[in-house]
Amino acid sequence: MRVRGYIFILMPELPDLLYIQRHLSGSLKGRSIAAVEVKQPVLLRNMLDVPPGEALRGLSVREIEQHGPFLRVGLSGDVDMVTNLMLAGRLQHQKPGEKAEGHLCVAWMLDDGSSLRLCDERKMAKLYICRTADTGSIPRYGTQGVDILSHAFTREKFRTLIARNARRQVRVMINDHAVLSAIGNAYADEILFEARIHPKTFSGRLSEDETGRLFDAIGSVMAWGAKMVEEAARPIQVKVREHLKVRNRKGEPCPRCGTTIRREGVRGHDTFFCPSCQPPSRKLFIDWRTAGKATPHPDAE
To answer: Among residues 46, 52, 130, 138, which one has the fewest Cβ atoms lying within 10 Å of its Cβ?
Structure first.
């Protein structure tokens, strides 16, 4: 994706992973692996004592599960394949006659003639093959924070997490997968925009009202994102982002008030926000509210 001279890597996020998980569950459950092709061994973390082709051949797909930024494919024989697509990894379920897409790293040929392809031109994605009992030892897999889609994610739990991270900027806190599992960069911006909270606000300075708005925004924005990705019905290798309101929209008018969307850095990551809808709670180096006025958006609320 290119916007005004910048190229943005569309990292798969929770709505994307949920869509991929549902698609692959419907297509791959019960299928068995006929062969494995490894083009880029640098991605592979084989925790078994035999080569992947030998270890996986003949095993069938039992379940596919999303866990934080990971997708786990549970196979017969108590073997798991776990992928973390990272920045540029993409999965493609290629059916007979369909065109292969992307820079192939690993492919699994299935018994129905289709193949599951892991592609990554940057070769940053990771694929773990292990015994089911050892899945928890995969780096970051066993240390995910509270699942934001689970019943464990309550208002009271959220208040506790905010208190524990009081000195951290709120954008950093909600983006930390060891705290909340799992909010990526794009939806962190959308959540804060929905909650009308500046990304550099310290978590400990959030009011009770702001805390409640933020909790509600996490649920509503993620549900909205999942719905938009599902309705787009694109192939699983395509990252759907057209619906986002502020992410990667620097210089565009805010869809709510017409003020120009700005971009700043927060602990090494870009964040996009509306300086009017999300006013700062403390004095910052740049006050974007006075740094330039935007032309009002004709459709602004």
So the answer is: 46
